[in-house]
Description:
Blueprint: H1 2-15, E1 31-33, E2 41-46, E3 49-55, E4 63-71, H2 75-79, E5 86-90, E6 95-97, H3 100-108, E7 115-118, H4 127-134, E8 139-140, E9 142-143, E10 146-147, H5 149-155, E11 159-162, E12 181-183, H6 192-196, H7 199-205, H8 209-229, E13 250-253, E14 256-257, E15 260-264, H9 269-276, E16 280-281, E17 291-294, H10 296-303, E18 308-313, H11 321-327, H12 335-338, E19 342-346, H13 352-355, H14 360-371, E20 384-385
Parallel strand pairs: 4-5, 6-7, 6-11, 7-8, 11-12, 13-16, 13-18, 18-19
Antiparallel strand pairs: 1-2, 2-3, 3-4, 9-10, 14-15, 15-17, 19-20
Amino acid sequence: xxxxxxxxxxxxxxxxxxxxxxxxxxxxxxxxxxxxxxxxxxxxxxxxxxxxxxxxxxxxxxxxxxxxxxxxxxxxxxxxxxxxxxxxxxxxxxxxxxxxxxxxxxxxxxxxxxxxxxxxxxxxxxxxxxxxxxxxxxxxxxxxxxxxxxxxxxxxxxxxxxxxxxxxxxxxxxxxxxxxxxxxxxxxxxxxxxxxxxxxxxxxxxxxxxxxxxxxxxxxxxxxxxxxxxxxxxxxxxxxxxxxxxxxxxxxxxxxxxxxxxxxxxxxxxxxxxxxxxxxxxxxxxxxxxxxxxxxxxxxxxxxxxxxxxxxxxxxxxxxxxxxxxxxxxxxxxxxxxxxxxxxxxxxxxxxxxxxxxxxxxxxxxxxxxxxxxxxxxxxxxxxxxxxxx
Length: 390
């Protein structure tokens, strides 16, 4: 149950978001790096350093963190440590990474050797991480919720990358280490491309700016090409979608956790992904960017007629209709269940959480494959159709 609970927390991180506050350095100096989609981070290049401002996603109008990225060994790094901002010497040399998605990105950018430790190793579907741990070149720092402080201290890390949470009360003992904490709040973006664009910030941290820019260009181009292939109307426009779509199917996501069904809010990145994939979402008009905690009856009433049902599973065995019905007999009332159009991703077997945060184009393709199989895009990358046998 503990492993399942951790995965649920990770999954909910994918669904959360907030509003934007544009922020610039107080002195007004520097050139702002243009962000195409990201709304919760501002990057400004100043003389001798780069200023990064993140807004507080839970308190509108407030700043979550301010960072000054300075070239390693520069005088400014030593002089500004009492300025009230967090000074980070870049590129990072020995970082500790708590989140599997950020570890994937760092490896993809070619900075694997700059990772000295990781948390939640047992949940990471990253061969290179496990290889370096076995070789003694990366330390297993234990559970992210209760990390091994002694190991982190021994690593002499120059930064720790972790995700902030609402009402968490801070980061606990790890704040007292004197190591810069990088708040990875990318999951609070309202769009999948907005979250992915944070790779530009991580590229700056690891000295991989060009690699990050190039990767994001690939992601953005592929995402837009997939959207364009559906001939969907732009916001505010009214015209028919591609005749090949044969209607706009409805999608429902997730399943019960205990007695609660958590669905993405209408302003969440998942809600927007469904729309971009040419699908309908029952909560599209909802104004929440985080998840909604609903009863089964509420979900059945609003989305029981959904054509496609998708969810994450963390089981050791393949999910079947019989096993799903055994979990909760009420699932049989859902149209997608009756029509055997249920898809799931086993995050214990495929690198779903590792990849989708920074490759939303791959996830969008999966959604299109499930919603519009007639388009002939082939099999999804992550999701599999649940077996018919009961």
